[in-house]
Specification:
The chain has eight helices and nine strands. With 250 residues, the protein is of the alpha/beta class. The strands form two sheets. A six-stranded mixed β-sheet has the order 4-5-6-3-7-8, covered by helices on one side. Strands 1-2-9 form a three-stranded parallel β-sheet. Helix content is 26%, strand content 25%.
Length: 250
């Protein structure tokens, strides 16, 4: 990223260098300094973290008088996903022999920036942030196309919950499920819901969040559609929510 910025080019990325002033301040400074020095812009923009968490939930918060609690749920069925990174979930492995703590830390590093941004923009100062990881095993032999046989009792799903707390009370949560064969095994459920407890309470379901048959267009679109905002933004590390609303490029 810094090489791109030092070449005096604007840079947009979907990789999790998101809200880095909180999660990885050393990388934030490195990127921000390079962008500012070269008069160009760095702008992370993707689906999650990004539009689904945290942009859309925060837009919806404009409909309420106040927010008592914000919960964003999502997930994906990886059974047809042949991407190499899916191997990190260990589908078909013995859960007792799988490095669960390593996976938990890696997933948190990827997604948790959305929790911090949603909390900050709601004016919340977390006194604690917690991450939990639940493992689910196959209740029967499964046959996902991308993995072959997944034997009964081996891993077939994960649920990650990342939450920010204020005064011991959970205020902002992101729940994400990675699993296979959702059409056969319903738990853990993949729920694409945004729940805002407040006045009024709002519960929104978003369908086709990750349509695999369309090659992750929903991940690519937020990066492509934000190009005009990136070009016009001030030099440095900039956030999408601080820019004019992006619209589809035609």
């Amino acid at each position: 990223m810094v090489k791109v910025l030092n070449a005096k080019k604007n840079c947009i990325t979907t990789i999790p260098l998101y809200y880095s002033q909180v999660t990885t301040p050393d990388l934030y400074k490195m990127i921000n300094d390079a962008a500012a020095k070269n008069g160009v812009t760095f702008m992370p923009s993707g689906l999650l973290p990004g539009f689904y968490a945290s942009h859309l939930p925060l837009y919806l918060c404009n409909l309420v008088d106040h927010v008592d609690q914000l919960t964003v749920q999502s997930g994906e069925d990886d059974q047809n996903n042949t991407s190499s990174w899916v191997k990190v979930f260990g589908y078909g492995m013995d859960p007792a022999k799988f490095p669960q703590d390593k996976l938990k830390a890696g997933i948190a590093a990827y997604y948790i920036a959305a929790v911090y941004e949603m909390g900050d923009r709601l004016g919340l100062k977390f006194d604690d942030v917690k991450v939990t990881h639940e493992v689910f095993t196959a209740p029967q032999d499964l046959h996902p196309k991308a993995f072959g046989l997944i034997k009964k009792g081996t891993m077939m799903g994960h649920r990650f919950t990342m939450s920010g707390y204020v005064g011991g009370e959970k205020k902002v949560s992101l729940i994400y499920v990675h699993k296979i064969c959702n059409d056969i095994v319903k738990k853990p459920a993949i729920d694409n819901h945004i729940y805002i407890a407040g006045i009024p309470t709002i519960d929104v379901e978003v369908q086709n969040m990750i349509p695999l048959e369309e090659s992750y267009v929903t991940s690519a679109a937020p990066s492509v559609d934000v190009i005009p905002q990136c070009v016009e933004a001030p030099a440095g590390y900039q956030h999408v929510l601080d820019q004019p609303t992006m619209l589809p490029l035609v």
